[in-house]
Amino acid sequence: MRIHKSGDKSVAFFIAYMKLLVLSEKASIETLEQYMLVHFFQDDIDSFGSITHENFKTALLQLTMDP
């Protein structure tokens, strides 16, 4: 999936994206953070900006608490 760097990515975006990864068996709930760091953020967690970074962390927390 091609992701444009313009605009902040929302919590809802990350929840949907990460659920898709789990359903397609690309990652598990336990490996999502590392998978996203490598494949989405390309090893630079701030590459999309601080708001997107915070929204990612919030979405990850929500998913790990209620998959």
Question: Could you characterize the architecture of this molecule?
Answer:
- The structure is a single chain.
- The chain has 67 residues and is mainly α.
- The protein has one domain.
- It is 57% helix and 0% strand.
- The protein is built from three helices and no strands.
- It has helices at 11-23, 32-40, 50-65.
- Helix 1 (11-23) packs across helix 3 (50-65).
Task: Tell me briefly what this model is.
Helices cover 57% and strands 0% of the residues.
Q: Please identify the structural class as seen in this structure.
A: mainly alpha
Strand content: under 5%
Main β-sheet: number of strands, strand sense, barrel status?
Answer: none
Overall morphology: globular
Number of helices: 3
Query: Residue-averaged pLDDT, rounded?
Result: 91
Secondary-structure element pattern, one letter each: HHH
